[in-house]
Amino acid sequence: MKTSASGSVTAKHVPQRTCVACRRVRPKRELVRLVRAPSGEVEIDTTGRKEGRGAYICPERACLEKALKGKQLEVTLRGSISSANRDKLLKSGIELIGGVS
User: 45 lies in a domain?
Assistant: First the structure.
C-alpha cells in the first residue's frame, strides 16, 4: 500500500485482463498467458514476459478448450493457428492446469 501526499492509504493497482474464452475480467496473475511468438508459433507463456502478441485465458480446462476451438484466439493474436499447434497447446495446457475444469 502507498501513502498519498495527504496521508491517506491507497491500494496498489492490480492489472486486469479478460479471458478470451469466457470474457471474465480477472487479475492478470490469475490468468494463463498465450503468446504468438515472432516465428508465428503460439505457446504458453509461464513467465508472462515472452516477446510477442499475448492473450489470456482462465486456468480452467473449459476455457482452454473453448479458446482453442473457436476463432477468438486467432483474432486476439492476429494470426492463424495450425491444428498441430492447437493440439500441442491443448496437451501442454492440460498438463499446466492439471486437468481441472
Answer: yes
